[in-house]
Amino acid sequence: MQKALRRAADQLRLLGKPVGILATSPEDARRYRDWGYQFVAAGVDLGLLVKAADRLSEQMA
Predict the structure, then answer these.
(1) In DSSP terms, which residues pair with 40 in a beta bridge?
(2) How many CB atoms lie within 10 A of CB 45?
(3) How far apart are CA 23 and CA 26, in angstroms?
(4) Are 37 and 20 in contact (CB under 8 A)?
(5) E-assigned strands of 1-61?
(6) Whole-angstrom Cα distance, residue 24 to residue 22?
């Protein structure tokens, strides 16, 4: 799948199309950026909300 994602980015750039993707980890986001993706969403809203709620809950304990 990663090879296909990289090829897709290359092909889309050759066509002059913007290239974007959703990354679920910082490592993936950096890799996609290095491959030439022009915009990278680096988190999922629900995951970010859950992490923040967990952090708050820990602080309140």
Answers:
(1) 21
(2) 8
(3) 7
(4) yes
(5) 20-22, 39-41
(6) 7
